[in-house]
Design a protein that fits this description.
Helix content: 10-25%
Strand order of the largest sheet: 1-2-3-4-5-6
Shape: elongated
Order of helices and strands: EEEEEEH
Number of strands: 6
Largest sheet: 6 strands, antiparallel
Structural class: mainly beta
Oligomer: single chain
Length: 101
């Protein structure tokens, strides 16, 4: 699954998720196993990135940027249980964009 979400204040979030399906007891379940969220302000620098796509193990990376300067202000590795939902990513994009206005 892939696409772009266009937000207020010219923020764009690119979403990339790889999904697998599994049938258990007659119920089909869908689980995302690779993720990438990348956000930026159009014509400017990145806002944030979350991903586990480029890792050999199960590390989930989170990076936040000052979108006016491009300077990285946060870099951390998360556990799977800490990885945000899409709505949480959208909330964070809004907060970061407003923080550097």
């Amino acid at each position: 699954m892939a696409g772009h979400i266009y937000c207020l204040k010219n923020a764009v979030v690119e979403v990339e998720k790889y999904l697998e399906t599994k049938r258990t007891g007659g119920i089909r379940r869908v689980r995302a196993y690779l993720y990438r969220y990348a956000a930026w302000v159009e014509g400017r620098h990145p806002v944030l990135r979350y991903h586990n796509i480029h890792t050999a193990d199960d590390d989930y990376h989170h990076r936040v940027f000052n979108w006016r300067t491009g300077k990285e202000v946060l870099r951390e590795t998360l556990e799977r249980s800490q990885f945000p939902t899409l709505s949480e990513v959208l909330d964070e994009v809004e907060q970061v964009v407003e923080a550097f206005e």
